Amino acid sequence: MMALEIAFWTCLALVFYTYIGYGMILYIILIIKRLLCGAPTEPVLPLDDMQLPDVTLMICAYNEESVIAEKMENIRQLDYPAQKLCCMWVTDGSNDHSNELLRQYPEVTLVFSPERRGKAAAMQHGLRENKAGLVVFTDANTMLNSGALKEIVRQFMKENVSCVSGEKRVAARFKGQTAAEGEGLYWKYESTLKRWDSELYSAMGAAGELFAVRMEHYREAPSNALLDDFMMSMLILKDGHRIAYTKDAYAMEYGSANMQEESKRKRRIAAGGLQSIWWLRALMNPLKHPKASFQFVSHRVLRWSATPFALLLLIPLNAALVVMRAGHIFDIIAILQLLFYAAAFAGYLQARSGKKSKLLYVPYYFVFMNINVFQGIGYLRSHKSSGTWEKARRG
Questions:
Q1: How far is 375 from 204, CA to CA, in rounded Å?
Q2: Taking Cα atoms as reference points, which of 143, 252, 155 lies closest to residue 203?
Q3: Neighbour-count burial for 27-62, b at 16+ CB within 10 Å, e otherwise
Q4: Each residue's pLDDT tens digit, 263-274
Q5: 0.85 exceeded by the pTM?
């Protein structure tokens, strides 16, 4: 019985630390750091716009004809001098009318590959044509705030920053869209952790909706990377440079059309996470990377590897301890587990019927994310030699 109790408490502690405890510890460390060191000084942009650096805004796209007009209108609204900005579209194997539409915009530099090889390969193709020192990556279906580019450039003025991650914001196209609202809530929590990570030392990776790299320290991600943006940013971190995070440069996009489409994303992200953990395993060495290893393991590695298994094991371990009458505490936890999973199942039923309750879709989305980690294992086995994937339809 003792061995079962140890295994149970270990699994419970791991789940708690991964999803709640790390954020609590991070916040306490930051309070102490602010008291000892004071608030960090923020860099200021030059008053003359012509002193701003040259920037390439790169959009890697596959069959995005439906959003090109909206995206180009958004780009034209960006507050950055036109003489300093190169707008580059890389169309990777697109067989719709994307190229014809893009050629109608004189400010667009079009890079086309007739073969679809995946986003990582498209990025590498575009970067071979790039001449700017800073490259900002964004997706075709995400819209940026007008001050995004200037804010990203400002972040590069901070000490040892060679990658900048903007904030992803998720909008629901209509009320009660569970996939979008669940994803939006998750990203609010995730954005908070990224902001705290960045303040402590470095953000743990960047999302493809909006991030930028300093080409001087750019490292090429493997062409079969399923999370090309994450790998590219983390290779910069692995070389000893920081990833800054800013909420003042953000990309807005609609959430997945439904939970089936969202599952496509989550499976790929989980598979890419496992793939990245192996490629970045040297970053977990606390002797070589004392700060980054703590953040990387706590924020990324546990979520994509051990913790989902610990969450699953809690069910049979708890049941066995209840049957063995190990103590009332295990009875109480078993009841709480039953209530939690009942709420998650009720949230699933509501999602299928098109209804919504925040009280129910939070546990549902949490369980949904962890189920997709297991599905990601199979996804990785079938996609380990290719960086292409099926796009999830947005709402």
A1: 23
A2: 155
A3: eeeeeeeeeeeeeeeeeeeeeeeeebeebbbbbbbb
A4: 788 888 999 999
A5: yes
8 A C-beta contact, residue 63 and residue 143 = no
**Distance of alpha carbon 280 from alpha carbon 288, whole angstroms:** 13
Residue 211, strand partner residues: 137, 165
Which among 380, 390, 387, 350 is positioned nearest to 368, based on CA atoms? 350
CA-CA distance, 84 to 106, in Å (whole number)?
A: 15
- Please state, as a whole number, how many other Cβ atoms lie within 10 Å of the Cβ of residue 12: 17
Residues 6+ apart with CB under 8 A from 141: 64, 67, 71, 253, 254, 394
Residues near 370 by Cβ (< 8 Å), separated by ≥ 6?
308, 311, 312
Residues 6+ away with beta carbon under 8 Å from 352: none
Q: Which residue has the tokens 């598979």?
A: 271
3-state secondary structure string, the chain?
CHHHHHHHHHHHHHHHHHHHHHHHHHHHHHHHHHHHHCCCCCCCCCCCHHHCCCEEEEEEECCCCCCHHHHHHHHHCCCCCHHHEEEEEEEECCCCCHHHHHCCCCCEEEEEECCCCEHHHHHHHHHHHCCCCEEEEECCCCEECCCHHHHHHHHCCCCCEEEEEEEEEEECCCCCCHHHHHHHHHHHHHHHHHHHHHHHCCCCCCCCCEEEEEHHHCCCCCCCCCCHHHHHHHHHHHCCCEEEEEEEEEEEEECECCHHHHHHHHHHHHHHHHHHHHHCHHHHCCCCCHHHHHHHHHHHHHHHCHHHHHHHHHHHHHHHHHHCCCCHHHHHHHHHHHHHHHHHHHHHHHHHHCCCCHHHHHHHHHHHHHHHHHHHHHHHHHHCCCECCCCCCEC
How far, rounded to the nearest angstrom, does the alpha carbon of residue 117 sit from its chain's CA centroid? Answer: 22
CB 178 within 8 A of CB 257: no
| Residues 376/268, Cβ–Cβ less than 8 Å | yes
Write out pLDDT tens, residues 205-249: 998 899 999 999 999 888 888 898 999 999 999 999 999 999 999
